[in-house]
């Protein structure tokens, strides 16, 4: 017997191995892109939170919920501020929630 070429079975096995390899590489690249986008969104949220608190902190934070802050550099970001009494003298609990394309960050501070 002279084996001068590939049999159909060998070609099918090689094709299936290549297909599995390419699918695993595609899955890895796709998850890497999704993770990168999520990290970028969270970095934008951190920047927006910094700008928001920088603009609000000099003002009377007790009236924060009625003061709209325009986040010029962050068009797609929405925020919500909740103010609750802490039960300790005159201090309050401030909860700042920011959302951007499905990602959300929440910051809690006392003043």
Outline of the structure:
By secondary structure, this protein is α+β, with helices and mostly antiparallel strands. About 45% of the residues lie in helices and about 25% in strands.
Outline the structure in words.
The chain is α+β, with helices and mostly antiparallel strands and 111 residues long. The protein has one domain (8-110). 44% of the residues lie in helices and 23% in strands. It contains 1 helix and 3 strands. A 3-stranded antiparallel beta sheet has the order 1-2-3. A hairpin with a 6-residue loop joins strand 1 and strand 2 (92-100). The longest helix is centred in the first third of the chain and has 49 residues, at 8-56. The chain is rod-shaped, with a radius of gyration of 27 Å. The mean pLDDT is 84.
Q: Topology of this protein?
A:
Blueprint: H1 8-56, E1 78-85, E2 92-100, E3 103-110
Antiparallel strand pairs: 1-2, 2-3
List keywords for this structure.
44% helix; three-stranded antiparallel beta sheet; alpha+beta; 23% strand; 3 strands
Overall number of structural domains: 1
Shape: rod-shaped
Biggest β-sheet description: 3 strands, antiparallel
Helix content: 40-55%
How many separate helices? Answer: 1
């Amino acid at each position: 017997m002279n084996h001068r070429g590939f049999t159909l079975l060998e070609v099918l096995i090689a094709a299936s191995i290549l297909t599995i390899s390419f699918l695993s590489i595609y899955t890895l690249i796709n998850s890497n892109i999704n993770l990168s986008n999520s990290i970028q969104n969270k970095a934008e949220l951190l920047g927006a939170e910094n700008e928001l608190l920088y603009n609000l902190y000099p003002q009377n934070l007790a009236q924060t919920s009625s003061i709209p802050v325009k986040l010029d550099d962050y068009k797609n970001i929405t925020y919500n501020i909740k103010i609750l009494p802490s039960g300790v003298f005159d201090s309050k609990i401030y909860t700042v929630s920011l959302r951007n394309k499905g990602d959300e960050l929440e910051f809690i501070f006392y003043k």
